[in-house]
Write a structure and sequence with these properties.
By secondary structure, this protein is of the alpha/beta class. It contains eight helices and twelve strands. 23% of the residues lie in helices and 17% in strands.
């Protein structure tokens, strides 16, 4: 799932482009983006949205392109505008910051900013997703309402991971980290992930995504022994460099905790080891998504799906 298309759904709602009016805010997520054809900036579009009587009922907001110079300009003005609007968007529960596709700006070129003020401004925020990790900062947060956190990146910096793992999210159910590749700045190691795998963080976590990573084999080998596996229901290792080595570790595990689904779509696993894994998971009554098989090159070079 490279970023070729805009989100069609978010936080359980269909995404529609905001054009002058809000409607059915309990059913739709509204996407605000730089409107070239109307000659409006993102901030001007956002002001139009805030002027709608239904703004107070808006539950889900998707932020698209915010600048004519998207390759150069960071998201700080957007964050500041969101924070300033907290008194108007009183029912906002879900924010996607950066629904920007590759033809608009490659993910590795997206400049983010310190997003921690958003969490302070919206205590009822349940879903937060962000695309692009250059200049992205979370800090150490405490937020009791957050249930779903996604960070999409072609190369995630370790400090972002450390800050998330040091944060207090007592109701977090779904954590989705696109770790990326060192060719695009990823410097997270397996050791950095161990506090998460130990299972003591985020007591309500049921879905864990460690995706788009060149550590896929190492994660697979480590997680079969990790306490976190005893309580998560869904493990997502998709979009990464998983091959026969990592799959054999999963196949040889006598049990896989309370797992109900394993997602490895976009992988480099050969047919025979994959068939053995599927057979093993059937016995354990675990569903699997192993679609989008990839072929490594003649030098066995493999890369996550999303880098640039």
């Amino acid at each position: 799932m490279a970023f070729y298309e805009h989100r069609f759904s978010f936080a359980g709602k269909k995404v529609v482009q905001f054009k002058e009016t809000l409607f059915d805010t309990n059913k739709f997520a509204f996407r605000v983006t730089r409107a070239f054809e109307e000659g409006q900036t993102w901030l001007e579009q956002f002001e139009v949205l805030l002027a709608q009587p239904e703004a107070a009922t808006l539950e889900a907001l998707v932020v698209g392109m915010w600048s004519d110079e998207q390759y150069d300009d960071g998201s700080q003005p957007v964050v500041e505008a969101l924070v300033a609007a907290k008194g108007q968007l009183t029912n906002l529960k879900a924010i996607f910051l950066g629904d920007i596709i590759s033809e608009e700006c490659e993910v590795s070129w997206l400049h983010q900013s310190d997003v921690s003020p958003i969490f302070a401004a919206y205590p009822n925020l349940e879903v937060f997703a962000v695309r692009g990790s250059d200049s992205l900062k979370f800090g150490t947060l405490s937020h009791s309402s957050l249930k779903h956190l996604t960070v999409q990146s072609g190369g995630l910096d370790v400090q972002i991971v450390r800050d998330i793992l040091a944060s207090d999210f007592p109701n977090l159910e779904h954590l989705d980290l696109y770790l990326g590749t060192d060719g695009y700045g990823a410097n997270v190691t397996l050791e950095d992930l161990m506090p998460l795998l130990q299972g003591e963080l985020f007591p309500k976590l049921t879905t864990l995504g460690l995706r788009n990573s060149d550590l896929s084999n190492a994660i697979a080998e480590a997680i079969i022994h990790a306490p976190i596996l005893e309580r998560i229901k869904v493990l997502d290792l998709s979009l990464g460099t998983l091959n026969d080595e990592g799959v054999k570790a999963l196949t040889n595990a006598e049990k896989l905790g309370g797992l109900e689904k394993l997602d490895i779509h976009y992988h480099f696993v050969n047919a025979e080891p994959l068939a053995e894994l599927k057979s093993h998971l059937r016995k354990l009554k675990i569903k699997i998504d192993a679609s989008e098989p990839q072929d490594a090159d003649e030098d066995d070079y493999r890369s996550p799906q999303i880098g640039e």
